[in-house]
Write a structure and sequence with these properties.
This protein has 3 helices and 6 strands, in the order H-H-E-E-E-H-E-E-E. It is of the alpha+beta class. Helix 1 packs across helix 2. The protein is globular, with a radius of gyration of 14 Å.
Length: 139
């Protein structure tokens, strides 16, 4: 269930809708890149603006210059990072990665989506001004 009080709820809902379309059609068992390509197609059908495999700068504390970079699977509508997995089950390390990306990329909202389980798994991560909050939609 999408909670309207969360930032970018409408956008993350559309992204999750696309992920369900991919998972319903392909099921589990493919490599991540297959889901990534299919999700890009669904994003296009949904009319979402996105960049795939976008190389983003990583920042440390209040430094103005980046300390490195990392590719994000998708960057949707210049607002939400989307990290994909194709594994049996999401672990805390995957969630920590998604949270770290928000901090490093100076973003507020991200999605972690796993196509590898029998049922689609996704987690929304948000950065608050004072802390990061985790919101599970489905386990």
């Amino acid at each position: 269930m999408i909670k309207e009080e969360y930032k970018y709820s409408e956008l993350t809902g559309r992204i999750i809708k696309c992920a369900y379309a991919v998972h319903n059609y392909l099921g589990n068992g493919f490599q991540e890149v297959i889901y990534q390509r299919a999700l890009a197609y669904e994003f296009s059908l949904e009319g979402l603006e996105f960049e795939r495999e976008l190389e983003m700068d990583i920042y440390y504390k209040d430094m103005e210059k980046p300390i490195g970079n990392r590719r994000v699977d998708f960057f949707a509508e210049e607002k939400v990072s989307v990290e994909l997995k194709a594994i049996i089950n999401l672990d805390d390390v995957h969630l920590a990665q998604a949270i770290n990306y928000l901090e490093a990329f100076k973003l507020e909202v991200g999605l972690l989506i796993n196509f590898g389980s029998k049922k689609l798994q996704f987690k929304r991560v948000m950065k608050n001004e004072k802390q990061l909050k985790r919101h599970d939609y489905y386990k």
